Amino acid sequence: MTLTLETATDRASYMAALLDLPVSSPLQGWGYGEARRVLGQEPVRYLVRQGGRTVGAVQLMRKSLVPGVSTLYAPRGPVLADRSLLPEFARAVRRVARRTDHFLTIEPPEPLVAGDSPEQEDLAAEQAVIPDRIGPFRRARTEQPEHTILIDTSQEPDTVFAGLHKMARRNVRTAERMGVQAGRDESFEDFWEIFTATNERSSLGAFPRRYYKTLLREADQDGGEAYLLLSRHEGRALAGGFFLGLGDTTAYLYGGSVRDDRPPSEGEKRKDAKAPDAFYWSAITDAHEHGYSRLDLWGIPRLLDEKKHSFGVLRMKLKFGSQRYWFPAYDLALSPLSTPLRTALKVRRSYLNYRSFGTTDDIL
Q1: Which value, in Å, is the radius of gyration of the alpha carbons in the chain?
Q2: Strands, E, within the chain: which ranges?
Q3: Which Gene Ontology MF annotations are present (predicted)?
């Protein structure tokens, strides 16, 4: 039966439809789209209808490249009642796309198992589970991290703790003995100090400050949550993150940690309070307490290689979860210019990576 895309202009009804679907995707929430306006993108929302029933919801970001040339992007979407609807969804998109829209990129929110071990024996074998095509959609490069760790937070914290890497358990206990306090926190300034210091240390880019402030405000409405979680020792925030929650899923989108450079209260050297470990453990317990059954640690390298720029972050995340998953992307051509335009954008992305990190590879 034919699918149609019905423009959604009412925030509450769109969010209600999204929350009623069997798959959760925080980036498809209304507030995320409002924050992307700060970056010059135009969010367009639709209810996916079939035979008078709502069978999905999608938030598309229209990105204008130059006058007369734009692309569409569904961050971790569309959210559909059944993944088998994707080919018909493609036909529905073609009916509503503008003449200036040259291709659509989707990132279906259903995870595909990559592995349950911190070791990766064969990347090609792991990626073999990913279809190259879904109807008219063709495999593409993702915008959000393709490879991630998902933690089952529906379990009791004691059960989760028992399954952590022994180093994580030891460090969490050390943090507790040293009086580290970790949990939800209202201080955007402390988060921002940690986040910017981490990006500067790792030569990573970031969006304008106004984007994060907007996301924190706009996504914390109508059944969605946006919140900060900080880990403090003797009052100072040493690790923290920005989370986006919707339905059964909460995602750790942005964050980092800093060294405690204060002089020690006694002795010649300040002891490591293991604040980052306390932060990750708090993220797990907080997700459980607030009813989320899944915590997305949001990004690890596709190739688990010590040479990767982001390997240090990977090592920390693997202490708290080893269930790895893929979230692949797919492109749908909307005009004859789709292929050359995608090629040009790929070259530009590789150039920017090389200029910043000395390699054409993505960070993750």
Answers
A1: 21
A2: 3-7, 42-50, 53-66, 69-74, 79-80, 101-106, 112-115, 133-134, 137-140, 147-152, 181-185, 224-233, 236-246, 249-257, 294-296, 324-326, 329-333
A3: aminoacyltransferase activity
Q: Please write the tens of the pLDDT for every residue from 53-75.
A: 999 999 999 999 989 999 999 99
Mean pLDDT of 238-252: 98
In the beta sheet, which residues pair with residue 313? none
Domain CATH for 54? 3.40.630.30
**Cβ-contact 56, 26 below 8 angstroms:** no
Res. 112: pLDDT tops 90: yes
Q: What angle do CA 264, 270, 272 make, to 5 degrees?
A: 145
Question: How far is C-alpha 212 from the chain's CA centre?
Answer: 14
Count of domains for the chain? 2
CA 44, 131, 246: angle at the middle one, nearest 5? 40
Would you say residue 86 lies in a domain? Answer: yes
User: Do the beta carbons of residue 5 and residue 58 sit within 8 Å?
Assistant: yes
SS3 assignment, position 195: helix
CB-CB neighbours of 12 under 10 Å: 11
Element (H, E) at 271: none
> Does pTM top 0.70 for this prediction?
yes
Asked whether residue 83 is assigned to any structural domain, the reply reads yes
Residue 302 lies in domain: 150-318
Q: Give the single-character DSSP code of 223.
A: T
Strands 69-74 and 101-106: parallel
Q: Is the pLDDT of residue 360 over 70?
A: no
> Which of 363, 320, 316, 323 is CA-nearest to residue 149?
323
Check whether residue 273 and residue 204 sit in a common domain.
yes
Residues 307 and 339 in one domain: no
